User: What shape does this take?
Amino acid sequence: MRLAHISDVHFYAFPGIRGSLGKRALGLANLYVGGRRGHFGGDTIPQLVEDVLAQRPDAVAITGDLTAMAHAEEFEMAREAFRPLLDALPVCIVPGNHDAYTLAAVRDRTMEKVLGPWMAGGRWDPTERRWTGAEPGVPLRWPVVFEVGDVRLVGVNPCRATLSATGRFPRGELDRLEGMLAALSRERKFVFLLCHYPLLDRDGRPYARRGHNLLDLDDLLAVLRRQPVGAVLHGHEHHWFTASLPTPGGPVPIFNCGSSGYARRDPERTAGFFVLDVEGGELVSARRRSLLETGFREYPEGDTRPRPPT
Assistant: This one.
């Protein structure tokens, strides 16, 4: 099975005056005064979609931050931009903190209303080209499990609408996650865990960037040490990197996609996505496709699986 991993594309639509109050006012200042709006857009997304399809993946995982400020129009822009993927492939989506930007967006389930069919989990039906088994219109209860062949993708959602960019799991979600992982382990399924937030930093230490981290990260790491997965996929940090989590069951590779929607062409900080191959229940390769002056290509060349810490 081949999986393409995308994250942090940050579609942006001006919310209008009435929609620019509260936290969105801070976001607008960051976009316009701080210059962040120029970091995304251009022709990046069409090239991204074309190159993802060219890699012939069996599934696509998107680990959040499809939007800048969680407006319905932004989610709709993402849905239409990714329509060639959504119509052809099993696409699995979890939210990022920008997709839960305001209390209103969370309360109104704005993301679910637009992208719910690709968030609810279920079993992929290759004949009908859609997810089956999830109840349509029912509020999501995380974690969710996506079944694609012999591979399982487990999505979690610690994203909250607060003034900071921190995350925290709702009560009971980590207990349900551990139960799911234990059941999948007994079934001997290869599992990708999809979580927007980083678990480890570039140096292999728990990710602790103040105001941007998971507040209950230690609890999540404890779950993964008891119930290791095949790999963890996340975003949030726009500069891609990999790490490895030691567990009693062996090291768990962790892939930070970086931003797939970045407009810059700096080789070390550019739009990109991972291509991960699973064979015989093992992760056998991981490559990053990066957007450079000549378009998307493999950069750096070769396998990017992290080396276990010594």
Remarks:
- The CA atoms of residues 243 and 306 lie 6 Å apart.
- The longest strand covers residues 282-292.
